[in-house]
Queue: 3 jobs
Job 1
Amino acid sequence: MNENFVKTAVIGHPIAHSKSPLIHNTWLGKYELNGSYEAVDIAPDVLGTGVKALVKQGYCGFNVTLPHKIAIIDLCDEIDARAKTIGAVNTVTICDGKLYGTNTDAFGFAHNILETCKDKGWDDWSFAGGRAIVLGAGGASRAVIYALLNQGVPEIVLLNRTREKADELAQMAPDKIIVRSWDERNKIVIDANLIVNTTSLGMEGKPPLDIDISLAPPDALVTDIVYAPLYTGLLQQAKGQNLRHVTGIGMLLHQARPGFELWNGVMPEVTPALIDKVLAA
Ligand SMILES: NC(=O)c1ccc[n+]([C@@H]2O[C@H](COP(=O)([O-])OP(=O)(O)OC[C@H]3O[C@@H](n4cnc5c(N)ncnc54)[C@H](OP(=O)(O)O)[C@@H]3O)[C@@H](O)[C@H]2O)c1
């Protein structure tokens, strides 16, 4: 192996289902780079030794998925402000044996919407155009809210089954985030510029998301970060009402881009062909 070979990976438990190796290896091939990206299964009780082994084996960096996104923070020598605010690390760069953590989920969420708007010619829609309604206050919601604040959303209305979790998340920007009751979800969409599902509801094997968005304005954009199935019940409703809608698969693809750039020096592209390849896998 030559010394410019860039060894990277995704760690998680379980990890066999991960689409990240397919995404990264497609890019390594496309940009003719000298490197590898593999899935490494590390159980929670051996996270520390597992990560040390990656450092010893000369890895340049790795992505982090469930269940390690919070536990990895303590193993990092440094994490950036974004990862601190989101409270999770999904991308680690190894430099001189030290671990630097960041979080690219907010980038992935925002760029999925920005790129879709560009591709579809939705020039009249912008994050700054009005209120965002966010359903869910779990781990992914923290990254979504961070992205919305960064993109200039003027006001975020946050609804979660467990209200205390929404109240806690609202502390990220108390002047911009309003917490409302989960039971208000049907009527709260009336003046939405953006509606986002960040709950796991609607995902294969989970209960459906019980919501009626018929009151949503005709210029609203609807997105779901659940991507299996690609067309969740929420997105089917949006489609049926002729509302602009963005599927969740792009978030997964776009969140992979900054890590790839950090390790390989090339900011890769998300193309329709790559999206099809990942969906077919
Ligand atoms: N597209 C992507 O790249 C991407 C990235 C990350 C995550 N995701 C997807 O996003 C989803 C959420 O992930 P996460 O990591 O945030 O999960 P999480 O931390 O476990 O949060 C789950 C969320 O769903 C809510 N929820 C679960 N069951 C519910 C029910 N029966 N009724 C009402 N609310 C319910 C939870 O509410 P409570 O607080 O009340 O429990 C919480 O807000 C998953 O489906 C994941 O696959 C997609």
Note: The chain has two domains: 6-103+251-280, 107-247.
Job 2
Amino acid sequence: MSTVYGPVPSWRFGRSLGIDVVVPPKTCSFNCIYCQLGRTKVKLSNPAEFKNYVTTNDVERDLEKYLADIDVNSIDVVTFSGSGEPTLNPDIGDIVECVRRLTSGKVPIVLLTNSSLLYRDDIRRKVARFDVVVAKLDAGDEKTYRIINRPIKDAPDIEAIKESIEKLKKEMNGRLMTQTMFLYTDFDFTNCEGEPLTNLMNALVDIEPDTIQIDTPYRPGGEKFLKPASVDELRTIAKRFEDFMEKMNVHSELWVFGVHDKRGRKVAWKEHVSVSDEIMELLKRRPCRIVDIADSIGISYSETLKSIKNLLQKSLIIKRISSNGEKYYYPV
Ligand code: SF4
């Protein structure tokens, strides 16, 4: 399986070329209730125990091949994400330098991390090499953290995570962003209001990231008891943040799902070896709508529809409907 995928459409960053430094099976220190990759298969919190991890050579080989097929000027960012927690890869510091060299420093390099290893000085030193770090913070208190992220046994507690994100902000030269998934559940728990929201606002004001991303698990997947927040609910939460930040004299920018949207621009491909294979590679890492696939692969809507029908007939993919009625395609 290639360690490079996409480019995937991202509401936050636009056309995002993915680097997967974990690759399946999903390996993570969390088992989040909303994870679109399903439940965590390999539970790990120590990079030294990571067996058969992706090496710098693997990424170099795959990225060189990819850059021969797509126009690098039609990518907005390169994002380290994929099949688990990227900071578990012991080579991540070298890999980011390799990606910077191959893209000639033209494209910002983004890391999506669950923040669970940032308490370690050695990991923060590697992470500080990225242009943008998006640190997950779904909770400001231990109870909410345990319900949403379901950390594995050796993962740090929420206080250590909050402190480590604050430390990283002081140490890095790039931009620090946080991402919070706001959600509801069938068992009367939510982080959209009450104490969980107040604790989150306090934590984020202490960190004062450059950008606070207000997100929700809008794609189907994750646990059945989960319900995403609506865009109106996210706007209400954003207003609470704005008022609180003004009171506390904090100046983080807010990006709100459904309001800020950088999707919708096509990637320019120089050539296609196999459109079906490219669609399959994309969907293995990111469930997508038809329009997302058309933009990512750089082909027309009608051509995409034809390929999707073909893949459905062969039972290689399935369709699921999101809470707002949109059709997403998943690999079987
Ligand atoms: S941290 Fe990311 S990969 Fe790990 S379980 Fe949560 S959402 Fe999934």
Note: The radius of gyration is 19 Å.
Job 3
Amino acid sequence: MAKDEKKYVKVRCCHCEGAGCIYCDKTGEVEVSPPACLCPHCEGVGCIYCGFTGWAGLKGKYDDEE
Ligand SMILES: [Zn+2]
Ligand SMILES: [Zn+2]
């Protein structure tokens, strides 16, 4: 079940634009599966599908690979 060996890329959280918010755990950035692409549902604005970060393929969430 451990899938931590998968590579992720860090991208700037669209919600706070790097300032840090609850959605990015106050880091200002989030990890997503490469290639990093904006959430197709909101195009980076933030919605429930992307956890309000604006990015698709968030680490640990909505992991639909395999
Ligand atoms: Zn943020
Ligand atoms: Zn979204």
Note: The two ends are 13 Å apart (CA to CA).
